[in-house]
């Protein structure tokens, strides 16, 4: 009985002690049909999965993400735009604007993003910068200076093929991340349908991004296609406080691009959590200089991944999550030795190890728990052995007593 009791207690304890040390790998997305893909956490920008995401590709109509956010940020959406002959004659998908028609800039942005109107894109470019070429220069300056991408070059506002009109999946993910922070942009790209009443066309526009209907949590952004680019797709989705962005480029069909996107979204939502390093945390560099976080820093990690922080030679924060590493620029403020700094708490007294996100802190906590359980296990065995010895002793005493009584009865009856 005691042996069975020991097994019943030992097995759960061993599972508690060693279960967490068993490495579990999150299931990767299945075979992907798109030639270049990326999955990022929208809050942190952390790359969660990628395949050939730095490869130069033709974007097609996902270009319009940039045209729309520039129009929203730098234009007055209530401006009245007079449509030119050049805009009316634009190739490809249209909202059928007529020459001389007067339309608000806001309506043009909606026609651009919901129905992918190339004529609307040309009209926006001409209104803001005079012509497409000048607007393309504005687009390139915008994505480099405001978004911070380096491998993109636009030659037009709509994405029609040009050999020098190129980008990467990684750059488009960053551009979408930037644009989706704008509430007006977010509302427009999340619109499923709208009534369009124009001089040349009266209809109901249905958003070309089908995942707004077919994938729970989808919030935007844009699809695209020209023969040279194949099918391109940028998608954002939000579930349980997690906000993800997927870019797929050069799929053989739109169904493959949707399938790849859903597979990557499923992987991201199932395997990652969004965490945060709080403003005010202290980190030290290799020379022992102290730096304080000037703002909160988001990060995305798998449950079992550890997080470590360090400061590089450029005085930027380097966040290492498992075997992934990224740099957070302009988030650290160097602390003067004589300045008052936040009083370190028990969880952040080591300036290189931050509370809640640092792997070493988690390791120490795990080690402490293991030692505690080991001591408890030793005490359990000691008590069980003590009780067993006591039980044996009582049995021996009882046998001796029984033997003595039997001996007396035997001598009495002789």
Keyphrases for this structure?
single chain, 414 residues, alpha+beta, 5-stranded antiparallel beta sheet, 3-stranded antiparallel beta sheet, 11 helices, 40% helix, 22% strand
Please provide a written account of the structure:
- There is one protein chain.
- This protein has a 5-stranded antiparallel beta sheet with strand order 2-1-9-8-7, with helices on both faces. It has a 3-stranded antiparallel beta sheet with strand order 11-12-17, with no helix packed on it.
- Helices cover 40% and strands 22% of the residues.
- The longest helix has 54 residues, at 359-412.
- A hairpin with a 2-residue loop joins strand 8 and strand 9 (242-251).
- It has 11 helices and 17 strands.
- It is an alpha+beta fold and 414 residues long.
- Helix 5 (118-129) packs across helix 6 (132-147).
**Dominant shape:** elongated
State the end-to-end CA separation.
42 Å
If you average the pLDDT, what whole number results? 83
* Helix/strand structural class: alpha+beta
Q: Tell me about the biggest sheet?
A: 5 strands, antiparallel
């Amino acid at each position: 009985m005691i042996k069975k009791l020991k097994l019943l207690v030992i097995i759960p304890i061993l599972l508690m002690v060693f279960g967490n040390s068993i490495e579990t790998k999150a299931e990767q997305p299945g075979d992907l049909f798109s030639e270049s893909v990326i999955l990022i956490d929208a809050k942190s920008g952390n790359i969660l999965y990628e395949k050939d995401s730095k490869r130069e590709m033709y974007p097609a109509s996902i270009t319009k993400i940039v045209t729309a956010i520039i129009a929203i940020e730098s234009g007055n959406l209530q401006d009245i735009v007079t449509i030119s002959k050049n805009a009316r004659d634009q190739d490809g998908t249209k909202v059928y604007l007529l020459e001389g028609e007067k339309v608000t800039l806001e309506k043009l942005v909606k026609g651009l993003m919901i129905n992918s109107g190339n004529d609307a894109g040309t009209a926006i470019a001409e209104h803001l910068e005079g012509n497409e070429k000048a607007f393309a220069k504005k687009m390139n300056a915008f994505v480099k200076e405001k978004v911070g991408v380096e491998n993109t070059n636009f030659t037009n506002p709509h994405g029609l093929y040009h050999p020098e009109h190129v980008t990467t999946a990684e750059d488009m993910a960053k551009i979408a991340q930037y644009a989706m922070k704008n509430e007006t942009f977010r509302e427009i790209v999340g619109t499923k349908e709208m009534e369009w009443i124009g001089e040349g066309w009266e209809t109901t526009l249905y958003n070309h991004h089908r995942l707004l209907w077919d994938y729970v949590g989808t919030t935007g952004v844009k699809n695209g296609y020209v023969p040279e680019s194949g099918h391109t797709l940028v998608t954002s989705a939000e579930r349980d406080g997690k906000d993800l962005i997927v870019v797929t480029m050069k799929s053989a069909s739109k169904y493959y691009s949707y399938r790849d996107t859903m597979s990557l979204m499923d992987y991201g939502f199932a395997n990652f959590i969004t965490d945060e390093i709080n403003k005010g945390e202290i980190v030290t560099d290799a020379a022992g200089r102290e730096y304080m976080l000037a703002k909160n820093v988001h990060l995305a990690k798998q449950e079992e991944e550890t997080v470590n922080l360090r400061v590089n030679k450029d005085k930027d924060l380097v966040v290492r999550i498992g075997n992934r590493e990224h740099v957070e620029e302009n988030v650290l403020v160097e602390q003067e030795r004589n300045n008052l700094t936040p009083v370190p708490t028990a969880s952040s007294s080591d300036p290189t190890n931050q509370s809640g996100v640092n792997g070493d802190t988690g390791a120490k906590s795990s080690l402490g728990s293991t030692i505690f359980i080991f001591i408890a296990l030793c005490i359990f065995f000691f008590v069980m052995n003590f009780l067993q010895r006591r039980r044996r002793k009582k049995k021996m005493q009882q046998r001796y007593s029984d033997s003595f009584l039997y001996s007396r009865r035997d001598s009495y009856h002789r």
